[in-house]
Design a protein that fits this description.
Strand content of chain A: 15-25%
Radius of gyration of chain A: 22 Å
Largest sheet of chain A: 8 strands, mixed
Largest sheet of chain B: 2 strands, antiparallel
CATH architecture of chain B: 2-Layer Sandwich
Order of helices and strands of chain B: EHEEHE
Number of helices of chain A: 13
Structural class of chain B: alpha+beta
Largest interface: A-C, 44 and 36 residues
Structural class of chain A: alpha/beta
Strand content of chain B: 15-25%
Shape of chain A: globular
Number of domains of chain A: 2
CATH superfamily of the largest domain in chain A: Thiamin diphosphate (ThDP)-binding fold, Pyr/PP domains
Number of strands of chain B: 4
Oligomer: heterotrimer
Distance between the termini of chain B: 27 Å
Radius of gyration of chain B: 15 Å
Number of strands of chain A: 16
Shape of chain B: elongated
Order of helices and strands of chain A: EHEHEHEHEEHEHEHEEHHEEHEEHEHEH
Number of domains of chain B: 1
CATH topology of the largest domain in chain A: Rossmann fold
Distance between the termini of chain A: 86 Å
Chains: A alpha/beta (394), B alpha+beta (87), C alpha/beta (276)
CATH class of the largest domain in chain A: Alpha Beta
Helix content of chain B: 10-25%
Helix content of chain A: 25-40%
Chain lengths: 394, 87, 276
Amino acid sequence: MGTNAVAAKPQADQESRIRTGNHFMLGDHACAEGALAADLDFFAGYPITPSTEIAEHLARRLPALGGRFVQMEDELGSMAAIIGASAAGARSLTATSGPGFSLMMENIGLAAMMEIPCVVADVQRASPSTGLPTMVGQSDILQARWGSHGDYGIIAYCPASPQECFDLTVRAFNAADQYRVPVFIMMDEVIGHMTERVIIPAANDLPMSHRKGPRTAPGGEPFFSFAPDEDLVPPIAHAGEGYKVHMTGLTHDERGYPALDPETHDKLINRLVDKIRLNASDIVMYDEIGVDDADTIVISFGCTARSARHAVNQARDERMKCGLLRLITVWPFPETRIRELIKRGNVKRFIVPEVNLGQLRREVERLTDLPVLRLNHAGGTMPVPDAILELIRS
Amino acid sequence: MDLSLAQVPQGRVHVIAERCKQCNFCIDYCPTDVLMYSDDINAKGYHYPIVAAGKETACIHCRFCDLICPELAIYTTEVTTETSGGD
Amino acid sequence: MSVIEETIQPGVNIHPIDKLLRADRLPHILCPGCGIGTVIHGYAHAIAASGLDEDQHVCVSGIGCSGRAAGYVNVDSYHSTHGRALPFALGIAVHKPELNVTVISGDGDLTAIGGNHLIHAARRNVNLNVICINNFNYGMTGGQVGPTTPIGAKGTTAPQGAVEQPFNLPYLAKATGAIFVARWTILHVREFQDAVLRSMQKKGFCFIEVLAPCPTSFGRANKIGDGAHEVEIYRERCRVENGATNLEELDIDLIDESKSITVGNFVDVEREPFLA
């Protein structure tokens, strides 16, 4: 034969989007792998500790899988770029930490108003301002809920392990698409920089949902980008699909055209809030240890929940009636569940340890007259189990 | 060049009166001074361009009034004369 | 017969270019004598001339009077946040390189609050057509001075006259890497449309500055008068110099009557576009 046969490249050289199997993996990398497994198309970001490993990992992985990686000039641009890409149909992600999260707030409001799905990973560090760049914080929690001006709904997950960094990133993309909202993965430095076992399931075992698209072909009647279904979420059409959409950060009617009157505004903003509020029972996630008979319930999230779990387990070993409510979604806040626990009558007090000066404690205090004990550190270190245990014993 | 063979097109002016905001651009820059303001006003209170008396055949369909109009309120079409057709 | 002429229905109150506009939203909100409508009009003509399906075109704007442009063109259109039109458009252009993405926004939006994005989009050579409508001030908020206000010109935030050196936008665009740079005015309707069409045909970062009157805020404060008077300034003082290489000397002084305003297509080069 006269042809020079070229050996096919071994399969091992090919990048696989989903690295099914057992891994010993950094939390930041697990977040990046979760995004890839969730069919990430577009990443735009700006280097910032302690989130940079997410960007670096995606810079290595995403282009080889046909996606686009862009290092932007700042976080203002990063956020705008992922919204633009998503408006064109991309599953898009940015990753940052407190100072960058602050800059992103402007366009997070735009994503909320235009109802463009997107995911932001915020690996929290000790703040405010530049704070302690390499050390842990949990003080962006209220900013995640209220950081952009005005009223709107968002979803925020709080991973407490590298495994959850993977799982909740997949879930974040699905929720963003399902509800047409910006979704936050509120990691923290401890979780982002922790290396632990991460099990990546097979593709078929990953939950995947898709955006609701138009139900009519393009070119006919005008498409109404903001006409909601019963779940209050409108179907979305993307740039280039032929629907001639118009989207604006101005108050707009269901067609998407500016409608600058108080009635339209009130109706629109209520829907943006209600589409999360009224679907909260489908969105909210938490897990619990021993809350059924507890007179003391520790409410915790992120890295702090690891100390809290240890302390609660030890207290229960010591026959104390103590439970843990670990928040997996911080927003929407699981207030229905907390009210249920209070209603049972055996809860005497809550303990809310967190690496901030009491941001989530306020949310709990809002729901109850029972004592809500604090265990706070402004940042740089996290509450150790003994400190929580001591408070449980008190 | 035989200038007698050159044909200057003739145009007809169309005005969408309700869009006009009386900016003057079309009147100022019409090369053959076809336009003047109406005595009437539109719903927003602006005088809009009309073809001036005696200028009914003066438009040369250069389309400048159309292209510079910020309001999309004026355009011209070419008038094809009976004799210009080949078949 | 052009696409445009085919749609003409004489006697009906629609303009032949209406199908490329959201005509149900006309008349637009812009003031009498404002030049932004002419730019929108020109962009629509360039779309028609581009030979591309309308669905291949996308328009992105920032905030301000010029930012309203996206709301009037009948293509997929996005009215983003103040200064962020370029990174928003980058996201679209990079994710769907087959789309022809045009950013229409104002001088304040693109060069002040969005200045960082401008220089970096140009440096990267993102495949975008940028139409920067320069009316020398912040019109929507009532006539404040900005980075393009000529020295001496008055605004509500510089009642004694601007004292800061303004940007020379073609020079800035060239220096930061744009592969097509032009400056026209709304009086140069055909040249402007041709420049927009040229930028649609090029792969990379194309920047067109187009001077437009803002009679309500800038014209009145600077005794220029109405829009027609400012356009008359363009007619009297503009000098066309295509291919001009001395961009560093092309500052605009709208106030000094002895100074000419150089317009033209200045830069037209090729460079590897960004992720296109």
